[in-house]
Automatic annotation (TrEMBL):
It comes from Syntrophotalea acetylenica. Pathway: Amino-acid biosynthesis; L-serine biosynthesis; L-serine from 3-phospho-D-glycerate: step 1/3. Belongs to the D-isomer specific 2-hydroxyacid dehydrogenase family. This is D-3-phosphoglycerate dehydrogenase. Its EC number is 1.1.1.95. PROSITE patterns: ACT, D_2_HYDROXYACID_DH_3. CDD domains: ACT_3PGDH-xct, PGDH_4. The keyword Oxidoreductase applies. Residues 455-534 form the ACT domain.
Length: 534
């Protein structure tokens, strides 16, 4: 798998990639956008930081791309929708640089309160200005917007400075707020009451311009504002105006809507005397760079080795503590979907995944998506995976339903896939027994077989000698039967036989068996997903 590392990442991660025999590594960190667009189609993986825009244009040019790894937290420079449509997995390193940014935010809050940069510039200019007045945090109100990883870390540090910390985050749990031990307030209240405001939310349509002229207007006179999250969350033009009017006492910005800042208003903002301007250095500690580089490298190696990735952002995944328990169901549903999709010869209108037993107590969406991917892979030209399965089903007008029933049934846990199309319905029920996937119902027949790579499914009118005839035809063509399962509802009624074979069954042999026993249905299935795991 050819991987392009397009931005500088720490050597610790590169070493991990170099060591993996399945990875071929190219480190090219000085490419222009045009050069990158020209060569990207020869790579299956791309590693970036925040400077490379993995937008639709780049992802479309990367015809062979399978994974884009962002060595850092923010995914705002990656078009997740475009990646998902193309089945490209996007992963990041959501934890590796958190501590670095938390400490950075604290350093900037303190440096701004203490006017340290002004003091430094003044003494370096030969002055001895002891009239520079700082503001203490003690006794002040510090407002933290966004209370998860970085915001939460900033809250804990701020509390050590004896200030009242208040926070705003409409999506955080009560438990998290209790653990942080702060007062949760509305954005309006935070804005009105805080002496210092620090921003830690992602940049998206909801948070772009979260703080603009109307909010700045409601703030306390002389408020201190710090943004280490993303440029654009605080409207930069409005911030400049508020600094100029004196409404904002001082500001510190680490992240910019344009990096590096080029436009006139940004240059003016950078140059403002009460602005501490930083060139996006939140994650630039030695420790953070090693962490994120290792995190993305490990995920790429997992991907190359067909192991579940830890930090894939556009694949539904289990909590890592559940992975061991749930992985057998992924294999089971993969095999069942591969099997049953080959029994359906018309378009699909609806697919229902039913989970019965204790498995239904968990989030089953990763199993459903995995099953949909296996189903659709047999139906469409495009390569379908867990990233694009839901989108492709939606585009094809296939309704996907998930039903969960935790009540115990005959088997500890079962998965049922019902597929429906015009005048067609197929049902398969599976479980795993002693660690092996088994099919326990097909249509309305109770069966019990372990799916294998080569299988024959036949229904016919039950009468003596039929099994012998099937065996004879297969024998004449040197096809060995590995296992046989017979399902029947009543004596001499319709019977279903499912054969596992050691080799493929050519279509002329299928036709011959069909005519010898006058089969009402016969189909050879090549169940690729049932191949033994490596
Ligand atoms: N300066 C840097 O170098 C650097 C490095 C890493 C991350 N970051 C940025 O820091 C920010 C925070 O990162 P994180 O890892 O803590 O993210 P996170 O996803 O862990 O937390 C974000 C929090 O913001 C909350 N939120 C979302 N919308 C909100 C809204 N409208 N109002 C209030 N809260 C809202 C979410 O509920 C969540 O709790 C991101 O923008 C990220 O890109 C910057
Ligand atoms: O790559 C960087 O240094 C910036 C990273 C940071 O903004 C992030 O989102 O993790």
């Amino acid at each position: 798998m050819k991987i392009l590392v397009a931005e500088k990442v720490a050597k610790e991660g590169l070493l991990i990639l170099e060591k993996d025999p399945l990875v071929e590594l190219d480190v090219k960190t000085d490419l222009s956008r045009e050069e990158l667009l020209r060569i990207i189609d020869s790579y299956e993986g791309l590693v970036i930081r925040s400077a490379t825009k993995a937008d639709r244009e780049l992802l479309e040019a990367g015809k062979n791309l399978k994974v884009v790894a962002r060595a850092g937290v923010g995914l705002d420079n990656v078009d997740l929708k475009a990646a998902s449509e193309r089945g490209i997995i996007v992963c990041n390193a959501p934890f590796g640089n958190i501590n670095s940014v938390v400490e950075h935010a604290m350093a900037l809050i303190l440096a701004t309160c203490r006017k340290l940069v002004k003091a430094d510039t003044s003494i370096k200019g030969g002055a001895w200005n002891r009239s520079i007045k700082a503001m203490e945090l003690k006794g002040k109100v510090a407002g933290v917007i966004g209370l998860n990883k970085i915001g939460g870390g900033v809250v804990t540090r701020l509390k050590a400075f004896d200030c009242e910390v208040i926070g705003c985050d409409p999506y955080i749990s009560e438990k998290r707020v209790q653990d942080l031990g702060i007062r949760l307030v509305s954005l309006e209240e935070l804005i009105r009451s805080s002496d210092v405001i620090t921003v830690h939310v992602p940049l998206n349509d909801e948070t772009r311009n979260l703080i603009a002229a109307p909010q700045l207007q409601q703030m306390k006179d002389g408020v201190i504002l710090v943004n280490t999250a993303r440029g654009g969350i605080i409207n930069e033009q409005d911030l400049l105006a508020a600094l100029e009017s004196g409404k904002v006492g001082a500001a510190c910005v680490d992240v910019w809507s344009e990096e590096p800042p080029q436009s006139e208003h940004l240059k003016k903002l950078v140059a403002h005397e009460r602005m501490l301007a930083i060139p996006h250095l939140g994650a630039s500690s030695a420790e953070a760079q090693i962490n994120v580089s290792i995190d993305v490298a490990r995920d790429i190696v997992r991907f190359a080795n067909e192991q579940p990735m830890e930090y894939a952002a556009n694949i539904p995944r289990f909590d890592s503590s559940l992975m061991g328990q749930m992985r057998p169901f992924l294999r089971l549903v993969n095999i069942m979907a591969d099997f049953v999709s080959q029994l359906a010869d018309s378009n699909l209108n609806k697919v229902t995944f039913t989970y019965q037993g204790s498995v239904a107590e968990y989030d089953c969406s990763p199993i459903t998506v995995c099953g949909m991917a296996a189903l659709l892979n047999n139906k469409v030209e495009q390569d379908v995976n867990m990233v694009n399965a839901a989108l492709i089903a939606e585009n094809m007008g296939i309704a996907v339903e998930e039903v969960k029933n935790p009540a115990p049934a005959a088997f500890a846990n079962t998965v049922t896939i019902d597929i429906e199309g015009p005048g067609m319905r197929r049902t398969i029920v599976g479980t795993h027994f002693e660690g092996q996937p088994r099919v326990v119902r097909l249509r309305d027949y109770q069966v019990d077989f372990a799916p294998e790579e080569h299988m024959l499914v036949i229904t016919y009118q039950d009468r003596p000698g039929m099994i012998g005839k099937i065996g004879q035809v297969l024998g004449e063509h040197d096809i060995n039967i590995a296992a046989m399962n017979l399902g029947r509802q009543q004596k001499r009624g319709e019977a279903m036989v499912i054969l596992s074979l050691d080799s493929p069954v050519p279509s002329n042999v299928v036709d011959e068996i069909g005519s010898v026993i006058v089969a009402s249905f016969i189909k050879y299935l090549h169940v690729l997903k049932a191949r033994p795991e490596q």
